[in-house]
Structure formats: C-alpha cells, structure tokens
Amino acid sequence: MSKKSSVQDVGARAHIALAQGPVEPSTVTSVHVPTARTTAPPRRRVRRDWAGWWFVGPFMLVFALVFLAPLFYAIYLSLFRETLMGGNSFVGVENYAQALTDPKFWEAMGRVAIFLLVQVPIMLLLALFAALALDSARLRWVPFYRLSIFLPYAVPGVVAVMIWGYMYGSQFGLVADLNHFFGVELPSPLATNLILVSIGNIVTWEFVGYNMLIFFSALKSVPQELYEAAEIDGAGTFRTIFSIKLPSIRGALVIATVFSVIGSFQLFNEPSILQTLAPNSIPSYYTPNLYAFNLSFAGSQFNYAAAIAIISGVITMVVAYLVQLGGEKKGAGA
Amino acid sequence: MSAVSTGRRQGRTPSRLASGRIPGDESRRARPKPRHKRPSLLLGVLMTLMVLYCLVPLWWLVVNSTKTMDSLYGSFAFWFSGEFSLFQNIADTFTYQDGIFLRWLTNTLFYVVVGAGGATLLATLAGYGLAKYKFPGRKWVFAIILGAMAIPGTALAVPQFLLFSGLGLTNTPWSVIIPAMVSAFGLYLVWVYARDAIPDELLEAARLDGAGEIRIFFVIALRQLAPALITVLMFAVVATWNNYFLPLIMLSDAQWYPLPVGLAQWSAQSSSIGGQAIPHLVITGSLLTVIPISAAFLYLQRYWQSGLTAGSVK
Known about the structure:
The structure holds two protein chains of two kinds.
Chain A: H1 10-19, E1 47-48, H2 52-78, E2 80-82, E3 88-90, H3 94-100, H4 103-135, H5 142-150, H6 157-168, H7 174-182, H8 195-220, H9 224-232, H10 237-248, H11 250-265, H12 269-274, H13 288-297, H14 302-333
Antiparallel strand pairs in A: 2-3
Helix pairs in contact in A: 2-14, 3-14, 4-8, 4-11, 5-8, 6-8, 8-11, 11-14, 13-14
Chain B: H1 9-12, H2 41-64, H3 69-74, H4 86-132, E1 133-134, H5 138-150, H6 157-166, H7 174-180, H8 184-197, H9 200-208, H10 213-224, H11 226-242, H12 245-250, H13 259-269, H14 279-309
Helix pairs in contact in B: 4-7, 4-8, 4-11, 4-14, 8-11, 9-10, 11-14, 13-14
C-alpha cells in the first residue's frame, strides 16, 4: 500500500478498492462497451486516460498512411482533370457525370451484379451445407473433411487461377481430356459466353472452405441445451436445422454474405490473370476494378479512374449495408 | 485432435498473478463433445464429392509438376506420365532467368515476416488498447475502423499508388510491406477476444504491483491473447503470401516481385509475342508456392477454431 499516494488516477482508485478487500460488482464503475454480445457480468473497469493511445497509436498511424490519406487523395483526384496543356484543372463532378453515363462502366457493374446474384448464393449454400454436415455428428473423419475443403483458401489466388485456367484449356487440361476420351467437342470454358461461369467456379473453389469454417465455428458455439430441448420436443434433423441452427448463426451468415458481396464487387485477380489465356473473352473493362486499373496504368487517366473507383466503392458499401440491414430485420422478426 | 477444441490457454497455464479462478471464462463453457449418431451414407458421399472438388485441382498441380514440357501436352492430365521430371523441373525453376525464382521466394518471405508480423503486432496492440482502455477519441477510432472494413480496399489502390509514388516509396519493398501491416479485421478480432479473455482484475492486480502499462501488455496480456493473435497471424500470413494486386501495382522491377506476381509474369510471357512458353516452370513454381503456405496454414489452423469461436462472427 506504499504506492497509494503516488497514483491519483481513476484506475488507481479502483485498484486500491480492489486491494482493500472483496469488491461488490455494483460499486465498480461499469463501462458499456458497444458489443453485439456481452457475456460477462457488468463489472468492467476500463482506464480513462491517454494510456490507450500507446496501444492504438501505432496502428492508427499506419492506417492513416495507407487508408485515410489515399481515401482523401482519391476524392481530391476525382474532382480534377488533366488538361491537354499539362497540369490539372478543377472540373467539379464532371468525372462522376462521365462515369455515370459510361456504358463500359455499367456493363462492368452489371457483370459483377450477375456474378453476385448467382455465384454468391451457390457458394454460400455449399458452404452452409458442408458446415451443417460437419456439425451433424453423422459424419466420420470430420477433421479430414474440414481441412480438405478449407485447403484451397491457402492457395494463392494467382495459382488457383492458373491451375483452373490450364484445366479449362484445350491443350492439357480436363476439357482436353474429356474431348479426347469421348471424342466430342465440348464448349470451351474460356469462350465469351462461359467465361463468367468459369470465373465463378474458381472463386467458389477458393472461398467455399473459408465460408464453411465461419459457419462451422458459429454452429459450434450454439448452446448444447437448445439441441437437448429440441430432441425432447421430438424435433427432427431438418426442424432442428431451420428452427435452431440457422437462426443461431444468423450473424455469421450476414457477415459471410457481406464479405462475399464486397469480394464480388472487387473482382480483379481472376479475370486479370485469365485475360492472358482468353484475351478475346475478357475486355479491359470486364469488372469495375479491372476497368479502373486499366484506365490508370494503361491509359494514365488517374482522375477518371479515381472517380470510377469511388463510385464502385459507394455502390459496394450501399449494397453491403442493405444486406446487413436485411439480415438484421429478419433477425428482429424471428 | 478434437474437433471441439475450445482449450483455452489460460486454462492450461494460469498466470501467477491471477489468484484462483479467472472470471470471464465461465460464460464460455465448452460445449460437450457432440454425441455421435449413426453416420449417414448420403452425407458421406456428398461431402466426399466436395472434397474431390477441392482437392482435384491440387492433385492436377502435383501430377503435372512431375511431367516434362512435352508430356504435359500429350498425356492424360490427371495421372503421371512419361519420365518423372519433378526434380529436373524444380532445378529448372530455380535456375531460370539467373535464379530469379529464388529471389521472389526470398522477397515473399521477407514481406510475410515483416508485413504479416507487423500486422499482427499492430492489430494486437490496438485491439487490446480498444478493449481495455478508455481514452479520448476512442469512439472515433471505432467509427473509422468499422467504416474502413466496409470500404473495398482495392478501390483505394490507385490513389495509394499515387501517394506512395509521391513519397518515393513505389518500387521498394516498403510499398508492399506498409499496406500489409494494416489489418482492420485482425484488430476487430483481437478487440472482441480481449474484451472477454483478459479479466480487468488481472490488470488491476498487476498495476497494484507497480507494473507499467507496456510491461503489463507484454508480460500478462499477450499470453491471454495467444489464440486470437495466432488467428490474426494466420490471416495476415496467408494474405501477404498470396498478395497479388498491390505488389502488381506498386512494383515495376522484377527484382522486388513476390511469388504470385512473378508467376503471373511467367505465365503471361508465353502469350506475349516472342515470349518463351514455360508452362512446366509455371506449374512447378506454383507447386513450390503452394507447399510452404499450405504447411504453415495446416499448422496454424488448429488455433483458428478457438480464436474464431471467441465471438468474432457470433
């Protein structure tokens, strides 16, 4: 207790209280932490001074450099345009107006929208099925299945696209062998009308295990008592799934959907690498991201590219937000 | 390995400072081992199909990295054929273009150690700080980081490039490492985990003993945070090892490429005019890129469970 006089802040008072004997939870300052789930009883003492910045500061410094500064710079850039004489001139929202009437941009947006509506549900349903199967207690060798399905997530996107790209190819891939075996001429997965499906397959392959693990982790934290109660009530497998399991993991479902939505709008690696294999099927404006990239680095239209990037970013955020809102609303209704 | 591995570190190595039971843990009671029911054949078959879907491309990669360039074209793609030239291919991969593959491998390792290591350290510090301290501006930090998680990162790539170019950082390792050091999702994970896993009493007791805040973090908090930390590390390692878009933009000199960018360049080379087609080297190089990250991943993933279950996605 000799240190009692040397410390004066709130935290010190709390620890003196602690040192003097058992503390009633109610006498201690409780600080509400904004959380979705507060499991512990409300007896948190959090220090109120600048000490926290020692920990948060370094992160925020780097964060400001790689995130906040570019964000403001992008907004700034999008309001200017390079003139023929060289130098920039302020053009207001002209770049935005141009982007909003740019058929290439909307074609790219439409493409990722289709991708979003078809690939994301398929991938998430597969992932959900796998997670439910792992959790069902009716499957042996669960760790084997879990690891095998999760493994593609560790494969670099570039390598994944190359493997699938080669397999799609008519030279030494799966398609070539099928053609050879059955003496048929299958439609090439790299043709213009199938390329989006082929990309969807690659993305599904890469991320189905990741989403499965998110769902599986959530399923494992469902309280066991719920299952026991359901069993006593005579609920069958499907009843248990729809009445207990799915409502319990709604948070995970919403998060996985939001991540997939963001991922779809950001689609870049797969079309960009497949482009070398199928140059005629993938134009330079295949996805909004690819378009912004090519505008910047092939066309040096940095200002216009910034406007494109910002618009697609805003659309992404709006859609992600709507998904989240939809998920929460369903939650309130159930 | 048990599928339900909620074994918490603090359960096994109780801190000397914590006298008796650690509160906060009681709320997350481990779910008992699932009762095994009669295995379902249908589920087994369907899941096996899914495993095949996930593993066949990797099988293709392994098989084809053992083939010579000639037998790549002329043989069945999913079985070994011709002379076994895996080791020849590996040797060729490492010696092609004066051994640039080794250089790319070294670069990648460097980016992973500094970038992912830095990301883990920064996210852990900040997540802990947010969970256990109340400080001026805390709400703003929350708002900014949650907002950042919603914004597509690649939308910022171009301005990021221009900004880094203005600072003279493009085409240096820093242009890849510094952005890799920010993991908003990692911070979120640590924050959620630290909130429940580190009892405030423990910190207070340490303060009473006269320990400084930094010392408390490194000596006491860090070991409690281990599961979350490893989860963040695994995410950061995978993300940095596999990073393609950012280095593609930032780097123009092949000397600084990480493996994915280098491999993509090798692959594109065959379709460019006058370029030499080297599919066998691309395939073997891909295999060599996949093996270390898969090994690290399989090793680290066991900690994933407990880290994630801690509430990040609940």
